[in-house]
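[User] At your convenience, examine this fold.
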Amino acid sequence: MTISTGRGKDGRYHRQSFTCATEDEAHDKLLTLNQEKRSGELTIERPGSLSEFLDDWLAGVIKPNRSARTHELYEMICKNYLKQSPLSALKVERIRPQDVQGYYGSLLGKQVSVSMVHHIHRTLRVALNQAVDWGYMPRNPAAWLKLPRHEAREFRVLTPVETKKLVQALHDADPKKQKARRALWAPVAVAVSTGLRLGEILALKWSDVDLKKGTLIVRHTLEEVGTTLRLKAPKTKGSRRTVPLHPDTVQILKEHRRRQNALRLRLGWRWEDQDLVFPDTTPTSNYVVAEPKDFPAGRPRSPKALQHVFRREMRALGYEGLWN
C-alpha cells in the first residue's frame, strides 16, 4: 500500500509504502494516514523558505501551464514584493495568517496602492493553494483575510459631441509637427465606435476587415511580454466575434488605408508587410531608438508604447482618464 506525501523540490510526487497483513488492516492504516496528512501530522518532505518555494512554483507550475503574460505578472510580484518581504525567509509551513495580514498592513503604510496589495494577495493565495495541494501545509494562511476595499477609479466617459471633436482633432493634427497625434486618429476612431480592446485593435489585419460589408472579425489579440510582441487567439470563443462598423468608421478606415499604402510605397523595402491595420510605423514608437533605414515599419506596435503616447496627447488636448 502506498500514499502520496506531496511533491518534492525535484518536482516529482513522493510516496511512502506500508505492508499490512490483512485488507482490513490496510484499510484502517489508509484512513489513519489520510487523516494525518490532512491535519499536517504526516511527515513529508518539506520545502525551504517561501522565497525558494516561489521559485519552484513559478518554474514548475506557472510557466508551463499559464500564459506568458500571467507568468510575467506573477514573477514581477514575487520578485518586487513577496521575495523582498519578511515572509520570504519563513518556512512555508510556518507562515501564519497574522504574518500575511501584518505584511499587507506594512505595504499600505508604505503607500503601496490598494490595487497592488490585492494583486500581491492574489499571487500569494494562488501559490499557497499549491503548497496545500502538495501537502506542505494543512490550510492556506492567505485565505479569508481582510483586505482594504479597492480604490474607486474614475473614468472619463465622453459624450457623443466630445467624441466627435476628439476624433476630428486627431484627424486635423499637423502631419509634420504632430505625427504621434495624427497616428492616433484611426485607432481611436475604431476604439470609440466598436469598443474593441487595445490588444484586439493592434492585432487587426486587413484580412479581418470587410469595408464593403462594413464589418470586422476579431480573431486575435496582441500580447506584450517584456519586449516580445505576439498575436494570440482570444481567451474565450465569445471573444472571437464579428463587429459591425459605423459608416463613418468605414470611411475613416478607407482613408487610413490610403495613407498606409502611400507610406508603404515611400518606404519600399523598409516596410515589413504583416497585413496589420495599425502597425508600428515610427523608429521610436516601441521605445527602440533606430535609424529609419534600419527599422522596418509594418511590425506589430507595442500596446504599452501606444498607451503612453495616447495619454500624453489626451492631456495636451484636455482629456483625462481615457483608455486606461
